[in-house]
């Protein structure tokens, strides 16, 4: 069991460039989440999904899009990166029946936008 | 708006001492209060959690104290060890069993000196 994996681990973008972050989980979890972590701000929810083919906005969704075409994968896209999107991004998943209580996090992707 | 306020932002404790981290919330719909532990370069991992129908939960050296009337909860780490040095996040969940979004506190960087 690899758990929750994230690709890539690091990335540097120029303002205006686009990229996609991939999250994969092999635990057959229904719920998946994307967070960003910034110093002094904790973890803030960007988007989440309660099942294959469904997505919803979280606390800070502007500038991001997501897709959940397969149950095991949750993609986070930045269409036109901005310096304010410099952050560490974490993906998480949660099994059904827990209401999202227990979340398993990936190792993170450190993104720098110049 | 920050629905879960965490303090202190950083904490330095000597080995063998007690570490105490506090959180306060406003939303009375929260029904689950977990603490996550994050080591540098890693994703957060669930440490311990409590539901509002109990006032205390202990797991080894880690204890959550919960005060429903004051809308506050705290993490106590007894006999703190250098290996406990990490960032700790409190969180709160609402939404019942169908779906729950975790709202995180700002995080506390704990350093335990040998």
Topology of helices and strands:
The complex is a heterodimer of chains A (114) and B (114).
Chain A: E1 4-7, E2 10-13, E3 19-25, E4 31-38, E5 42-51, E6 54-57, E7 65-67, E8 73-78, E9 87-94, E10 104-105, E11 109-113
Parallel strand pairs in A: 2-11
Antiparallel strand pairs in A: 1-3, 3-8, 4-5, 4-9, 5-6, 7-8, 9-10, 9-11
Chain B: E1 4-7, E2 10-14, E3 19-25, E4 33-38, E5 45-50, E6 56-59, E7 62-67, E8 72-77, E9 86-94, E10 101-104, E11 108-113
Parallel strand pairs in B: 2-11
Antiparallel strand pairs in B: 1-3, 3-8, 4-5, 4-9, 6-7, 7-8, 9-10, 9-11
Summarize the structure in words.
The complex is a heterodimer of chains A (114) and B (114). By secondary structure, chain A is mainly beta. Chain A contains no helices and 11 strands. In chain A, strands 2, 4, 5, 6, 9, 10 and 11 form a 7-stranded mixed β-sheet that branches. Chain A has a 4-stranded antiparallel β-sheet with strand order 1-3-8-7, with no helix packed on it. Chain A is globular, with a radius of gyration of 13 Å. Classes of the chains: A mainly beta (114), B mainly beta (114). Chain A binds chain B through residues 4, 31, 40-45, 48, 50, 58, 90, 92, 97-108, and chain B through 2, 4, 6, 9, 32, 34, 36, 41-46, 49, 89, 93, 95-102, 104-107.
